Structure formats: structure tokens, C-alpha cells
Amino acid sequence: MPLRLLRLAVFAALAIAGFGFAYAQNRGGDPPIIIGDGSLILKSPRAAWAQWLSDSGSERRFPDAQIAVASLRIESPGNDTALDLTGRRTQITITSGPNRVEVFTFANGRGVRLRLRGRRFSDFRQGDDPATLVLDTDSTISAIEVQREGQTILSLKDLKPKTTVTLLPPE
User: How would residue 123 be classed by pLDDT, with cut points 50, 70 and 90?
Assistant: First the structure.
């Protein structure tokens, strides 16, 4: 039990740092999604998960199809990467143990969707607020692949625990 509390405390610190970065980078605009480990954490600061549109038990669409993803920030011990995705079709694949989370947009960088591979949204529990979903697991984010317009532009493997992925809207 103490290890679980430690993980939650570390994630909370990462989430606060991620929110601070997003706020500074976006002049107060909340990012559409933040994904972190410790357990697999999905945060949707702009819209509670109940507002996301459900296409299936493992796929959801952000309620505002016009929201754009302009950049991606990956923070991991020993790695801090920012990528420009403005106006581009993007797919981000995040691997955490046997689970994969795929975030993708349409050709203009709009229409944010999230697809789970190996899990369903019903496997997650509600976090401390309606914007947070938690999958209790010992797995951490181990790999991230980013494709822009169908071309792989980043492939990170063997990531260290305490990784956070934040999708940011335009400034």
C-alpha cells in the first residue's frame, strides 16, 4: 500500500508540472490530454471523460472536433522532447506493459481520438476528478512512437518510469 501512495504522489507532482508547462506554453489553454505512468493515467483537462464521445468500449473522440493538436511534449528521466505537430495528421502510440494507447488526429491536426489496445475504458477507474482515469498496473510507459503524415518521426524505447506525454493545443 505505501508503494501505491508513493506512486500517486509522484504522479501528482508530474501532473502539476505538466499542467504548469501546458499553462505557460498555451497562455492558459488546457491541453486536450496528458498520459502518465506510475499506474497508467489518462487526464483530459479540457473535458471530463464523460463528455468524450464513445465509438466503442476502447475508442473515444474528444467532444470538440475543432480542437487542434499543435505539439507534443514527452518528459521522462533523461529525456525531454518537444515536437511540432501543427496542422498535421498524427498518431502517437504509447506502450505500457501489454497495453497500448493510441492518440491520433485527422489530416489538419484536429479531431483528437484515443484508442486503447489490450484494454477497454471500463477497465479504468475514476481518478480524483472527472478528468482523470486510472488503470492500476505495475507497468510503466516503456515506448513511444510518433508518426506525422504516416512517417515515423520519433521512436523512443526503454523509457524510465515516471514518463509523461502531453498533447498541447496551439498558442
Answer: very high
**pLDDT tens track for 73-120:** 999 988 899 999 999 999 999 999 999 999 999 989 999 999 999 999
Torsions phi, psi of 81, nearest 5? -125, 135
CA dihedral 86, 44, 94, 5 (to 10 degrees): 140
What number of other Cβ atoms are within 10 A of residue 48's Cβ? 14
Task: Let me know how long the chain is.
Answer: 171
Three-state secondary structure call for residue 1: coil
Cα–Cα distance between 159 and 140 in angstroms, integer?
Answer: 9
User: How many Å apart are CA 114 and CA 91, to the nearest integer?
Assistant: 10
14-25 pLDDT tens trace: 333 343 333 333
